[in-house]
Automatic annotation (TrEMBL):
Protein name per Swiss-Prot or TrEMBL: Rhodanese-like domain-containing protein
Organism: Cytobacillus gottheilii
Entry superkingdom: Bacteria
UniProt xrefs under PANTHER family: FAD-DEPENDENT OXIDOREDUCTASE, SULFURTRANSFERASE YTWF-RELATED
Signal peptide as annotated in the record: none
Length: 98
């Protein structure tokens, strides 16, 4: 599974690169702030919401510490998606939040 650090993802975001970020945390966690532009799909809803993701796109998957996003990545890879896990999750994120 591909991984990226929070700092590397922040640097990509700062270059205005088009990024598809999916936050798999629960509603109450996202309410405390998420990466600007990130799509929120709680981990438990991913199987039912696969139609919202395009297999032609690449996605960065984010959670609080990297565990749930790793599980989401494994599921998405098995279903033919191109994904990268953000290691360390939002605990390591130092960039802007919305």
């Amino acid at each position: 599974m591909k991984e990226i650090t929070a700092k590397e993802l922040e640097q990509k975001q700062n270059t205005k690169e088009k990024l598809n970020i999916v936050d798999v945390r629960e509603d109450e966690e996202v309410a405390m702030g998420k990466i600007p532009g990130a799509k929120h799909i709680p981990l438990g809803q991913i199987p039912a919401r696969l139609n919202e993701l395009d297999k032609q796109e690449h996605y960065y998957i984010v959670c609080r510490s990297g565990g749930r996003s790793s599980n989401a990545c494994q599921f998405l890879i098995q279903n033919g998606y191109n994904v990268t896990n953000m290691a360390g999750g939002m605990l390591d994120w130092e960039g802007e939040v919305e």
